[in-house]
Every structure is written in structure tokens, then in C-alpha cells.
């Protein structure tokens, strides 16, 4: 049955499941258990208090246990993928896989439960008895027709959502694919002829949903292992299948496929033959969804009918119509409003959200998953890619809203903006910490110039910046190249309407810009000839001059090229702010344990004590813009005077200078990194430290130390970096690094816009102050 899978994938799959430890899951505690007190809280005697609270009020289980975020993936192994009845034990890899997808895509915890029970009554009893453990039940790979009865009965008995994924998850995504394919083919759902292969769980649920979307029962033809489902057929019939019985003397798929607009395959490998495909109607939609091997391979179908739109359930072909696009998010929405069930309104909301998302510009994450080739909406991209991070952002709120409107939400969401933020924070780890900056930027967007305007990441960032309303982008790039690339990446922003463009090869401001450049850098070794050449060839120079002239409010560069050479131009043209000796760089790392700002990660090799103190003050200003109160640690190998090396003395002097300059700042040093991050460790060395809790701003003694710590955190703690944030320029200018993602560029845009706004405000206040003699 795994015949169409390459040898390489087969051995890779076994290796993946075996190593480094068997299976795909583990259970992790979410609370500390490091000492006697933790033990007393987590277990006896403290746990008894939690038990009694639930006994007194069962709804307390939602806040005292994992139940509200825990789903059971239940199978008896009777219809595992298209492998048939291979039993519950052999189904376990699939169920563990579903658990991983629930967790990765929607943050939902899962116990996979494989039950050795084929009798409907007994299976229902087993699952119903699990209600105290779970917030929802996802039935999986239970064969038809038993699955229909199991689901119907459980829905009646249980007060939590019961969802048969193979039926409804598949139907929802098929509904979205059909909606979009018919729109592209210019066909109406009430007119199309649908031929199904398979009359099991998935196929019948899909047909039912298509009927609810407007398909007409008389236009639907169903076939299964016995052939056509016709009125009067006795073999292998059941009441669910009988709904689609046609009054016909046709008996085979080959006969009924004639003129079909849609082939819906949810049966077994290779049942659809090229000669059948040739007989289908114009621009046919072929949904060959059997797993792992489809009813027809896309290349075979394409050869028979070049005008066909083709979908499979597999990730190695375009148009993966697979219930993974649905089940994590429909449960996310249902659990988040404590829905008592998943009803038709919630399913319809999911179909609409998925179909609409496919029509939006593709996301950067999907582009990366496709190795840079971004599929735009069309026959090769009828539905979103499973890695599209917007799936959760669109489907979960749509489902939650539908649950509320249809009266099944027990805990309605009061603030959908806050809910969107929490989902955003799940998808983009930087989401939560960046939120204050995005809100500020949105309230007063600035003009941000991007030196590398032809870079894909910058273009994608510009699209997001325009959609988010945080800035008006100015891209430096050749119009034809920018235009062609925007089209290639499926981005909808337009020059003039959404962003401005500076063409380095031909711009009317060229002469003025050269003059400004010479004024700023003429005494720094830039000759008129060099100025003219650089103004045509170096986008960082153009961007810096635009910033200096006030044609932009902030500058972002560094997506390509060396940090140092960008810095040289910023130094020459923009210079440092009054009262600042030199630039420094602060980088934010977002880890699962918290957010940490590190300096100087990129510029000064060995800052002096005075420079360290100044840097701490500049860092504090930036950190406050994130809505975070800075807690500063000056780091060293020495712990509060434990060593007397030159670098320890430097950090001690820096602390004294910092205290003098900014006595209100919560800062201490010199201290080791563990003392900075843990109050318990710090208390052992110096209980009277001015610093309380974990430090969030870490100032390191040298560039080596800072950069190494930063890179260690990125790799070992799987930390997400934001920055570097350039400290000290006279106007907001930031030099990113070539590893930055489009999201990183967007984040730095928000930082730069807020900084520009703060600078304008400071200048306005300074201008309003009466001049002192
Ligand atoms: N892409 C996706 O997201 C999904 C894909 N699927 C795939 O759909 C298929 C069916 O799954 P499911 O509905 O859960 O299973 P069921 O066992 O409930 O249904 C299987 C159906 O396929 C029919 N069938 C089996 N072999 C053939 C054949 N050679 N020719 C015609 N019909 C055949 C069976 O007919 P009979 O009843 O007469 O035996 C039955 O009607 C599987 O391959 C599965 O992997 C399922 C869910 C989601
Ligand atoms: C995808 C899925 O659920 C199946 O093939 O059964
Ligand atoms: Mg399945």
C-alpha cells in the first residue's frame, strides 16, 4: 500500500520515528518541581486543595487542570489512512502524528488513545467515559458506517466537542477547495456534476457538506468497491450511503465519470484511470485524496487533461487537500470559547475562512517552505499551504465567533482584538513583546526608507507594513525589477499608491542628493566623483541622504552586505546624536524563558567604563518603548568584587558612573550571568543588590562577550532575535544582518517609527522651551 513512496522516504520515515528516541511525543511538566515546597504544591498535600475546589465547582477544572486545552485523538484502527483495518496498535504513529500537528499548529495538547474495540456500543462507552479528562474528542480513522453511529451517539452523550476528523475536517477543506476551484473555472455549484469514488466516512461527509453549499443531490454520483451506488442495490449498502443512490443502470466509475466537473476521490490508490479523466467536463477538478497514494497521480492526470485542477492529500504535490488545514484550528476556536459542540455554523465559518485565505497574498513562511517559489492563488494553489501561519489567525476566531453566534459557546470571548493578539503571539513569537511598538507606530505611522528595496524580504515586509498601517515604505530599487518581483511573489502593494520608490539609476533628486552628501561627508574623504558614483550605486548612501534631508523619518538597511560598510555610511552621513560619543548596538532575544536585551552585540570591541554607562542609559530608553521597565545587569566573570581583573574593575567603575548619571535606573553589577538571571543565585552573593528579579538588560564588557552570548542564545535557546537596534545615531537608522527574515524587518520598522516619533517629540519640546542664557 505504500507502493508510491520512494525508498528514500521509506527509510527516512523509519529513521525519523526511531531516533533519537522512539515515537514523536513526550509529556512535559509546565510547573517547577525543584524543591520540597514545589512538591508540596504539585502533589500531596497541596494538590488536595485543587481537587476540593473542582469537587465544589466543576468549572474550576478549566483553570486548575490542563483539561480545557487537552484533546483526545481516538482511533480503533479500522480505516487508517487508506491502509484499511490495520488495527489500533498499527494506527498509533498516525495518532501520534495528529497529536504533533495539534500542538505545533494550534498549541493544543493531545493524548492519543488507541482502543482495541470494534463494537459500536462498547466503543461509545469507552470514549464517553473519558469526558472528565478532555476538553474535546477528535475521532480518527474509524471506518464507515460504524463511525457515523459512534459520532452521533457520542455527540448526544457528551458535553464537549466531538468531531470526526475524517468526515468533517476533510469536508471543510474539500468545501474550501471546491469553492475556489469553481470560482476559477467560472462554474456554479448548483450546476456541477460530482462523481465520488468512496462512500465511506470522508466521502459521504464531503458530499453532505457540498450539498449544504448548494450542490444538488441529483448531480452527485457515488461509487465504491461494489461500483455505482444505485437505487435497489443490496450489497454493502447502509442508510448514509443510500441517500446518494441514483436511479440508473450505470454500474461503474468509468460510466458515470462522463462529463463530470468534479472527481472526489476518498477511496483507494489508482482507481481513477487516465481514460476516465479524458471523459470529464471542461476544466475539471480532480480531488484524488486517498492517502498515502492518491486515486491518480497528478502527473498522470495532468498528461490526460492539461486543463485539470488537481489536488491530493500529500505534501509532496501542490494543492494538499488534507484535514490538517482544519482540525487544529477548528478545535482552537471551539476550546477557546468552551463550545459544547462543533456545529454546522462553525464548520461553515471554517470553510469560508480557508477559502478566503487562499486568495490572499502568500506569506513569507510559505515562501520559505517552498524554497522561495511562492504559489499565488490559482489552479496550483487553490487552498492555503499547511505551513501558512495565518491559518490559525483566520480560522480560530471565525469558528469562535460562529460558536458564540449560534449559542454553543459557554465562555464567549469579550475582546476579539485581545484574542487575535494571543493567537498572533502563538504564531509570531515576537508578537507579544512587539505589540506596544506596533500600537504606537500605527497611531502615527512614519516614512521608512529601505535601502535594499529589491530584496524579497524587504518587499514582503513592505506588504505587511502597509497592511498593518505602521509606516509608509520608501523602497530604493529599479521600478521594473521591483514591479516584476512584486508580481512574482504575489504581493499586492503598488508603487505610488502604497509605497514610494527611489530609482537609483534615474531620480530627479539626484543632483540635490549629491550636494547634500558632499556637504555631510566632503570632509570625511568623499570626493565629488566618489559622491556621484556612490549616489548611483550604493543604496545605503541614498537612504542615508534621504533621511538626512528629511525625505524619510527612519532608515533600514543591512539586509544584504557587510554591517561595517553600512555603518561607515551611516557614520559619515547621519552621524551620532548630540552628546553621544559613538554608536553601539543592542539586540533583543526572545526565548521561551523571557525577553533579554543584550549590548553591545555588534559595534564597539572594548567599550570604556563611561561608554558602558552611556550604553546602559540608551538601552533603557529603547527598552521602555517596549512597555518594559529595564532591569540592568552589568555582566562580568566577577561577582560583586569577587575578582580584581581590569575588566571587572571596568564594570565596577561603569556602575558607579551609571548610578551618578541615572540614579533611578534599577541596575547593578558587576555580576556573573547566572546571578543576573536568577534572584536566588544573586541573593547568595549579594542579598542587598539593587536589582530585583531577573535582569532583562544585559550589558557585557566587550563585543566578543556580547556577540558570543547573543549567538549562543539564538542557537541553544532557539531564541528569536530582534535587531540589532542601533544606539546613538542622530536620526533613526538601523543596520540589520543578512540572516534577518521579513518578520524581522517588520519588527525593526516598528522600532524605527516609534524612535522617529520620540525624537520629533523631544525636538518639539526642546524648541518650545525658553532658551536659557
Ligand atoms: N486527504 C485527506 O485529508 C483525507 C483522506 N482520506 C483518505 O480517504 C480514504 C478513505 O478514508 P475513510 O473515508 O476514512 O475510510 P472508510 O473506510 O470509511 O471509507 C473507504 C471507502 O472507500 C471505498 N473503497 C475502498 N477501496 C476502494 C476501491 N478500490 N474502489 C472504490 N472504492 C473503494 C470503500 O468502499 P466499501 O465501503 O465498499 O468498502 C469505502 O466506501 C483513505 O484513503 C484516506 O486516507 C480520509 C480522510 C482525510
Ligand atoms: C488525512 C487523514 O486523516 C487520512 O488520510 O485519514
Ligand atoms: Mg484520518
Work out the strand percent: 5-15%
Tell me the CATH architecture of the largest domain. Answer: 3-Layer(aba) Sandwich
Number of helices: 31
Bound molecules: NADPH dihydro-nicotinamide-adenine-dinucleotide phosphate, pyruvic acid, magnesium ion
EC number: 1.1.1.40
Protein name: Malate dehydrogenase (Oxaloacetate-decarboxylating)(NADP+)
GO molecular function, one term: malate dehydrogenase (decarboxylating) (NADP+) activity
Domain Malic enzyme NAD-binding: 167-404
Describe this structure in words.
This protein has 773 residues and is α/β, with parallel strands linked by helices. It folds into five domains: 43-160, Malic enzyme, N-terminal domain (Rossmann fold); 166-319, NAD(P)-binding Rossmann-like Domain (Rossmann fold, 3-Layer(aba) Sandwich), CATH 3.40.50; 326-426, no CATH class; 432-573, Rossmann fold; 584-728, 3-Layer(aba) Sandwich (Rossmann fold), CATH 3.40.50. It is built from 31 helices and 21 strands. The mean pLDDT is 91. Helix 21 (479-488) links the parallel strand 12 and strand 13 (500-502). It is globular. Strands 7-6-5-8-9-10 form a six-stranded mixed beta sheet, with helices on both faces. A six-stranded mixed beta sheet has the order 18-17-19-16-15-20, sandwiched between helices. The protein has a five-stranded parallel beta sheet with strand order 13-12-11-14-21, sandwiched between helices. Pyruvic acid is lined by residues 81, 141, 165-166, 291, 313, 322-323.
Amino acid at each position: 500500500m505504500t507502493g508510491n513512496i520512494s525508498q528514500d522516504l521509506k527509510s527516512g520515515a523509519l529513521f525519523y520515528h526511531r531516533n533519537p528516541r522512539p515515537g514523536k511525543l513526550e509529556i512535559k511538566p509546565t510547573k517547577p518541581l525543584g524543591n520540597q515546597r514545589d512538591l508540596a504544591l504539585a502533589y500531596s498535600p497541596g494538590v488536595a486543595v485543587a481537587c476540593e475546589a473542582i469537587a465544589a465547582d466543576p468549572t474550576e477544572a478549566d483553570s486548575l487542570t490542563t483539561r480545557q486545552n487537552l484533546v483526545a485523538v481516538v482511533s480503533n484502527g479500522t480505516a487508517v489512512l487508506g491502509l484499511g483495518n490495520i488495527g489500533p496498535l498499527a494506527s498509533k504513529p498516525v495518532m501520534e502524528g495528529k497529536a504533533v500537528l495539534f500542538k505545533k499548529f494550534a498549541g493544543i495538547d493531545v493524548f492519543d488513545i488507541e482502543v482495541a474495540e470494534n463494537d459500536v456500543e462498547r466503543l461509545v462507552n469507552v470514549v464517553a467515559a473519558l469526558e472528565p479528562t478532555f476538553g474535546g474528542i477528535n475521532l480518527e480513522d474509524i471506518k464507515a458506517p460504524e463511525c457515523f453511529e459512534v459520532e452521533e451517539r457520542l455527540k448526544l452523550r457528551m458535553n464537549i466537542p466531538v468531531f470526526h476528523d475524517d468526515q468533517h475536517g476533510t469536508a471543510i477543506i474539500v468545501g474550501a477547495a471546491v469553492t475556489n476551484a469553481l470560482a476559477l473555472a467560472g462554474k456554479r455549484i448548483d450546476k456541477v456534476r460530482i462523481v465520488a469514488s468512496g462512500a465511506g466516512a470522508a466521502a459521504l461527509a464531503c458530499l453532505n457538506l457540498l450539498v449544504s453549499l448548494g450542490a444538488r443531490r441529483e448531480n452527485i454520483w457515488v461509487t465504491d468497491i461494489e461500483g455505482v451506488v444505485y437505487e435497489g442495490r443490496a450489497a454493502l449498502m447502509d442508510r448514509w450511503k443510500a441517500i446518494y443512490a441514483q436511479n440508473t443502470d450505470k454500474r461503474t466509475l468509468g460510466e458515470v465519470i462522463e462529463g463530470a466537473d468534479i472527481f472526489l476521490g476518498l477511496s483507494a490508490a489508482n482507481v481513477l484511470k487516465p481514460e476516465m479523466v479524458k471523459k470529464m467536463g471542461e476544466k475539471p477538478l480532480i480531488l484524488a485524496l486517498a492517502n498515502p497514494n492518491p486515486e491518480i497521480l497528478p502527473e498522470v492526470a495532468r498528461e490526460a487533461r492539461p486543463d485539470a485542477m488537481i489536488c491530493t492529500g500529500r505534501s509532496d504535490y501542490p494543492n494538499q487537500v488534507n484535514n490538517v488545514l482544519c482540525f487544529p484550528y477548528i478545535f482552537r476556536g471551539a476550546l477557546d470559547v468552551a463550545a459544547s459542540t462543533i456545529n454546522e455554523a462553525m464548520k461553515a465559518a471554517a470553510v469560508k475562512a480557508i477559502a478566503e485565505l487562499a486568495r490572499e497574498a502568500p506569506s513569507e513562511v510559505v515562501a520559505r517552505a517552498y524554497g522561495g517559489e511562492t504559489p499565488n492563488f490559482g489552479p496550483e494553489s487553490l487552498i492555503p499551504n499547511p505551513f501558512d501561519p495565518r491559518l490559525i489567525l483566520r480560522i480560530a476566531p471565525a469558528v469562535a465567533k460562529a460558536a458564540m453566534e449560534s449559542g454553543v459557546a459557554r465562555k464567549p470571548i469579550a475582546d476579539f482584538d485581545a484574542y487575535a493578539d494571543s493567537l498572533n503571539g502563538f504564531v509570531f513569537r515576537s508578537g507579544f513583546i512587539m505589540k506596544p511598538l506596533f500600537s504606537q507606530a500605527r497611531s502615527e505611522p512614519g516614512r521608512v526608507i529601505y535601502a535594499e528595496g529589491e530584496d524579497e524580504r524587504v518587499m514582503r515586509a513592505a506588504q505587511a507594513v502597509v497592511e498593518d498601517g505602521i509606516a509608509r515604505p520608501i523602497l530604493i530599487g529599479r521600478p521594473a525589477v521591483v514591479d516584476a518581483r512584486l508580481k512574482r511573489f504575489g504581493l499586492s502593494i503598488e508603487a505610488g499608491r502604497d509605497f514610494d520608490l527611489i530609482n537609483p539609476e534615474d531620480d530627479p533628486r539626484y543632483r540635490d542628493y549629491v550636494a547634500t552628501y558632499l556637504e555631510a561627508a566632503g570632509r570625511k574623504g568623499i570626493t565629488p566623483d566618489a559622491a556621484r558614483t556612490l549616489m548611483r550605486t550604493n543604496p545605503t548612501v541614498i537612504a542615508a541622504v534621504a533621511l538626512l534631508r528629511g525625505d524619510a523619518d527612519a532608515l533600514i538597511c543591512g539586509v544584504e552586505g557587510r554591517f561595517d560598510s553600512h555603518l561607515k555610511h551611516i557614520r559619515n552621513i547621519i552621524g551620532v546624536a548630540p552628546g553621544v560619543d559613538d554608536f553601539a548596538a543592542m539586540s533583543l532575544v526572545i526565548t521561551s524563558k523571557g525577553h533579554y536585551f543584550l549590548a553591545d552585540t555588534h559595534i564597539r570591541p572594548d567599550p570604556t567604563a563611561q561608554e558602558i554607562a552611556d550604553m546602559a542609559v540608551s538601552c533603557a530608553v529603547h527598552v521602555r518603548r517596549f512597555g518594559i521597565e529595564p532591569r540592568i545587569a552589568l555582566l562580568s566573570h566577577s561577582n560583586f568584587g569577587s575578582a580584581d581583573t581590569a575588566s571587572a574593575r571596568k564594570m565596577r567603575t561603569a556602575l558607579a558612573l551609571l548610578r551618578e548619571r541615572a540614579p533611578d535606573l534599577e541596575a547593578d553589577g558587576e555580576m556573573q550571568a547566572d546571578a543576573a538571571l536568577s534572584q536566588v543565585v544573586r541573593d547568595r552573593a549579594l542579598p542587598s543588590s539593587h536589582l530585583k528579579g531577573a535582569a532583562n538588560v544585559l550589558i557585557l564588557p566587550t563585543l566578543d562577550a556580547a556577540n558570543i552570548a547573543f549567538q549562543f542564545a539564538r542557537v541553544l535557546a532557539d531564541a528569536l532575535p530582534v535587531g540589532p537596534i542601533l544606539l546613538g545615531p542622530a536620526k533613526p537608522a538601523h543596520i540589520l544582518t543578512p540572516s534577518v527574515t521579513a518578520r524581522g524587518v517588520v519588527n525593526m520598522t516598528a522600532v524605527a517609527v516609534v524612535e522617529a516619533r520620540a525624537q520629533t517629540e523631544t525636538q518639539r519640546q526642546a524648541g518650545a522651551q525658553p532658551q536659557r542664557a
